[in-house]
């Protein structure tokens, strides 16, 4: 459970919104056979960056940056 460490309802809502936003940006570049794995990977990134984020947009930006760097590596 990627978001099990988040207990505040506002943090959970922000994390879910950021997950959807990031996924919507990257899903067309992910092969369908890898959708489930990559979405879960993004969810764990969101959970990891959530405590450090200033807001939902900052969270999305940080996750996208990290995800895109890892894909290019």
Structure report:
The chain contains three helices and no strands. The radius of gyration is 12 Å and the shape is globular. The model has no long low-confidence stretch (mean pLDDT 95). Helix 1 crosses helix 2 (35-49), helix 1 crosses helix 3 and helix 2 (35-49) crosses helix 3 (56-72). With 73 residues, the chain is an all-alpha fold. It has helices at 9-26, 35-49, 56-72. The chain has a domain at 31-73.
SSE inventory with pairings:
Layout: H1 9-26, H2 35-49, H3 56-72
Summarize this structure as a short list of keywords or feature phrases:
single chain; 73 residues; mainly alpha
Question: Can you summarize this structure?
Answer:
By secondary structure, this protein is mainly α. The protein has helices at 9-26, 35-49, 56-72.
């Amino acid at each position: 459970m990627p978001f099990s460490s988040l207990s505040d309802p506002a943090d959970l809502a922000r994390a879910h919104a950021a997950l959807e936003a990031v996924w919507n940006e990257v899903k067309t570049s992910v092969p369908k056979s890898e959708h489930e794995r990559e979405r879960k990977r993004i969810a764990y990134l969101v959970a990891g960056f959530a405590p450090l984020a200033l807001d939902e947009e900052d969270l999305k930006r940080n996750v996208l940056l990290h995800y895109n760097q890892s894909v290019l590596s």
